[in-house]
Amino acid sequence: MSADCPDITTLGAPLSPGLPHLTRVCSIRAEIGPPTEFDTSRGTGRAMFPITGGKAVAADWRATILPGGADFARRLADGTYEIEARYVLKLEDGTLMMVHNAGRMVPQADGSYHGRTRAELEVPEGPLQRLGDMVLFGTAYAPADDEENVYIELWHARI
Q1: Residue among 152, 24, 26 nearest 85 (CA)
Q2: 66-98: per-residue pLDDT in tens?
Q3: Residues β-bridged to residue 57
Q4: Which parts of 19-80 are beta strand (E)?
Q5: Among the four residues 26, 52, 55, 63, which has the most C-beta atoms within 10 Å?
Q6: Is 2 helix (H, G, I), strand (E, B) or coil?
Q7: 33 closest CA partner among 70, 63, 66
Q8: 13-31 burial string, b = 16+ CB within 10 Å, else e?
Q9: Which residues lie closer than 8 Å to 64 by C-beta, 6 or more apart?
C-alpha cells in the first residue's frame, strides 16, 4: 500500500473522514493450552488453541477470562495463522461479556507472532453497553518463549 493512495474525494465523495482516531479500550492476557493441530487436504493446517483463563483490564473495569473459549486457527503455507477466537470475560461485579476476535498472526524472526484483528464485544444492557456499539481493532502478541499466553489490546476507532 502506498502512502500516496488517493482518498475517497477522488471518487466523488464531498469529503474524506480521514485517519481513524484510536483509543485503547482494554488489555487482555489470554492463557492458552496446548493446541490440537492437523493438516488438511487443502494444503493448510488447522489448530484449536483452548483458552483456559486469563485477565482483562480497562480504565473502569477488571475481568477474568472463563475457561472454555478457544481460538480456531488456520495455518497458511507462509506460516501465518488466520485466527478466530471466542471467549467470555467475567467482570468483578459478575457481569459477563463475550469477546469475538478474528484476524491474522504473522511469525517474526525472533519466533514470536504479531497480529492485527477486528473484535466485537457482546455485553448486556447497563453501564458497559457502549462497548457493544464500538468498532474495535486489535493488536496481538504471542511471545516466542511463552507458549501459555497471548497478549491483546483492543482499540476503539472513534467516529
Answers
A1: 152
A2: 999 999 999 999 999 999 999 999 999 999 999
A3: 27, 62
A4: 21-32, 36-39, 45-58, 62-65, 69-75
A5: 26
A6: coil
A7: 70
A8: eeeeeeeeeeeebbebebe
A9: 53, 54, 55, 56, 89, 90
Phi first, then psi, for residue 90 (nearest 5°) are -115, 110
Using the predicted structure, report yes or no on whether residue 158 has a pLDDT greater than 90: no
145 vs 11: CA distance, rounded Å:
48
Q: What are phi and psi of 71, to 5 degrees?
A: -110, 115
Q: Name the grid cell of 47.
A: 489448530
Contact 88, 122 (CB under 8 A): no
* The three three-digit cell numbers of residue 88, written as one number: 467470555
What global pTM score does this model have? 0.90
Domains (range + CATH), the chain: 18-158 (2.40.160.20)
**23, 100, 64, 141: CA torsion to nearest 10:** -60
Beta strands at 81-91 and 96-107: parallel, antiparallel or unpaired:
antiparallel
